[in-house]
Amino acid sequence: MAKFNIDDAYNFESLLSEDDRMIMETAREYARTKLEPRAMEGNQQEIFHPEIPAEMAELGLLGVTIDPQYGGVGASYTAYGLITREIERVDSAYRSFMSVQSSLVMHPINEFGTEEQKKRFLPRLATAEIIGCFGLTEPDHGSDPGSMVTTAVKVDGGWVLNGAKMWITNSPVADIAIVWAKAKEHKDDKPVIRGFIVEKEFKGYSAPVTHNKMSLRASHTGEIILEDCFVPDENAFPDIRGLKGPFSCLNSARYGIAWGTVGAAENCYHRARQYTLERKQFGYPLAANQLVQTKLANMLTDITGMQLLVHRLGQLKDSGELHPSMISLAKRHNAGKALEIARVARDMLGGNGITGEYRVIHHVINLESVNTYEGTYDIHGLILGRDITGIQSFTPRGNDL
Amino acid sequence: MKFIVCIKQVPDVYAPLQIKNGELSMDTDRMVLNAYDASAVEEALVLTEQHGGEVEVVLIGPDKAKETIRKALAMGASRGHHIHVEDSTGLDSAAFAEILTAFFEKNSCDVIATGKQSQDTDSGLAGGMLAAHLSLPYAANAVGLHIDGGNTLVVKRQGDTGQEMIALPFPCLVTCSNDMNNPRIPSLKGIMASKKKPVESLTLEDLGLTLDGVRESVKTTTLSYREMPAREAGKKLEGDAEELVSNLLNLLQNEAKVL
Question: Hey, what domains does chain B have and what are their CATH numbers?
């Protein structure tokens, strides 16, 4: 009779290629031995230990899917997903740092950059010599980025950018920012969204820290302020126009989030199982109670679904058969389920679940962000709803203002 | 300078349920490189990085143990030797030492290194037996290694009262403690590069042996494996100092009977 593995009920890891499994093991060992010991301090004290990017880079964990000639290792998207799962098992904040560097900064430079831009930035991003951030969301434009008000106006030799971006992971420590702005070549042109590589030394660029963040405390978040910031022509992406540029980046990052949240959910499930087996009340382990067992059964069932969803998603991405709505489905499902699992695990740990030492509440609060960023749970529902019905419902109709 | 490190694939200590019905299950979903062997690989890599040379690894095991050879190659070893034994049930340390002896009669090197024991059985015998078969100078349980003059391995051993330094002339054999170092985590570049490194595939017949013949050299029989007995909860005494001392004395005299 086959064995039943309570960590991987349908043995999805046995379907992985040897390369992917070895990469997973490297990420797992790094996360367990190097990140976990710092995660508690990182989360409680709001510290992103500055040596972490270089450690990740040394193992080759940044921009793994990028061609080796630009500093990547040319690994599969499944491998990228497996890495995010291992890192987010410890803390979504570390995975957020990595997602931004890999999917939101290296990916657009690799996809939309000139050969010169790729050579200038990608190898240094892969070694973490420079850190990147990604500016799309604005104070008044979150789910509706098409309404952005940041502008880029053509001048001699470059562009002048004005505007503000908000909720930008890595911005306070970033050396470069991928900024999306409504660009006009001439005064009377219709504006079109274009992407720019803004360097921190550019005059008019600043990136103040966002304070009093309750979630993702082990990574940096800030704003990007652009005040008549001149960006030379060689730092503009040459051809990409419109929202498909930033959406391509978000799809890549959302793909990583769908995988990463599996790790956070698995960690909460492990901790809830261990705690309820050890903690005795009324003479028996909590885990001997039916209420507890069905909670654990629900967790394992949801986690198994999450694992199979991303495994198949990875196969589709690696074979080039991926539709963005497939990513919306997985990101929405997995972030939502991970948050539910984390909240239930917190409950199962009782009063101890409130303290940071047990680490489950860190996941709960982190996952509140993860469920919201990169397309909220509801917005991904509307993307799927539009596919299912053929009717877009992002704007309310019949109640026009 | 050439190192050949003997490595073994073992069940992950983090994997649950390794013993069933008195048998040690080698069929866990997670099999890993024995941690002591990983320290031996790491030390061999450090020494060859400092002094030049190369590190090869040899492993006895089933087809799926190839992944463990790849891990050592991903860490930086340059070549692997895989001695295929699909089912090693019943083979003891003496049998493994015999197979390795046949291998080393055909493959020479300056230093044979291996873990001081393996995580699954913790026997700690194969290294010493191999040294005896090959008549090599030998030191066990090394916590540090360095090279002296290009043809001597200086082994640091941790004793109860101090450290012992032993000089072994090449060729020699050393077994390594996991206290020696923190083995490197293979980088993704190392993993990708390991695909292109050669792994020699050997059968027992290639070494002039047969499985039946090797089984004849088995000297021991394992009767059964048992789980570690669960620790019983301690007693907590409460009260003022006088009560505590009196209760403790009572327990030590009448229950534990140690006074």
Answer: 2-215 (3.40.50.620), 234-259 (no CATH)
